[in-house]
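Hi team,

As requested, here is the filled-out complex form for the adenosine monophosphate run. I kept the field names the same as last time so the parser does not choke. Let me know if anything looks off before we queue the next batch.

— J.
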Amino acid sequence: MSDCLFCKIAAGQIPSSKVYEDETVYAFYDIDPQAPAHFLVIPKAHIASVAEITPENATVVAHIFAVIAKVTHNLGLESYRVVSNIGEQAGQSVSHLHFHVLGGRDMTWPPG
Ligand code: AMP
Ligand code: ZN
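And here is what came back:
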């Protein structure tokens, strides 16, 4: 999608602090971290949110979770939280599927 911030980040058109990259997935540190470790994992292909995942495009989601397991292990993160906000009320501000990975501090439950 030409006017999508995360499509541009995945394509290298907007700079980001890369954590991981392969053919289908890109991970980068959040510009406004909410924990000592806070990065985002996105599919390179544009999917608007979890609400747009279908049997046809779901393969990348399993891959994203494998990437999360690998990257957190490499960073030495044993405990962390994976979050995806869907829609305005849940706080989604960028309409390109992304999974927040947050760690390095105590977390509360339920989340706000
Ligand atoms: P959400 O609000 O759940 O849609 O998450 C979007 C996240 O993207 C927020 O945590 C922002 O801080 C982060 N963000 C926005 N612009 C950038 C950027 N240029 N580089 C890295 N992270 C960004
Ligand atoms: Zn996009």
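Two things worth flagging: The beta strands are 18-21, 25-29, 37-43, 80-83, 99-103. The two ends are 31 Å apart (CA to CA).

Thanks,
J.
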